[in-house]
User: Fold this.
Amino acid sequence: MTDENASENASETHWPDYYEVTAERPSWTTTKTAAEAFGEHRADGPRFAVDLGCGAGRDTRELLRRGWRVLATDMTPEGPETLWRLTPEGDRERLETEISTLQDFEIPACDLVNANLILPFQPTDDYATTWARILAALSVGARFSGMLFGDKDQAADEPDMTCPPPDVIRGYLDGFEIEYWNEKEEDGQTALGDDHHFHLIEVVAVRRTLPGNGPVG
Assistant:
């Protein structure tokens, strides 16, 4: 399936409604925690973040507000269109968007990969390879921030979802220092009002070593 066909199919799902509902909601805690952990920007220019599954841009706009440069990607055009509409003009010069499936998106080297509520929607066959591409984009000192579903989430029984146990998620972050980890299991509702049993894992981690090497710097 091409990106164009995938985008058309996604636009016919619930995602456009989700973007409309969540468009002006505040950024997730994971994103703000990661941004704050970096502190001030370097003298040579703003830091660079990649926002995977950006939706309507609640996290992207927060990073832009903090002076970051952001590449935001989503598989439907509705999300980035809303993001551009809601982004203040003064922040737009630091914003770039791309419409692509996560499987086909080439993640560039960056200071932060932000992935809130996108990885669980990857099929099991793509989950590990997606993690590998995320990790390959992060050098020592770079961070990952994300919200994932654990194995007790209601979605774990759905064939196109991936909800691993927390220890498996921690295993992907070998060589990282976990700076923030919040795990919660609760009954609630999705953004569209559907009842759901959640097993949410929120994580922010900074890379300390590269594979096969000790600490750098």
About this structure: Confidence is low (pLDDT under 50) at residues 1-12.
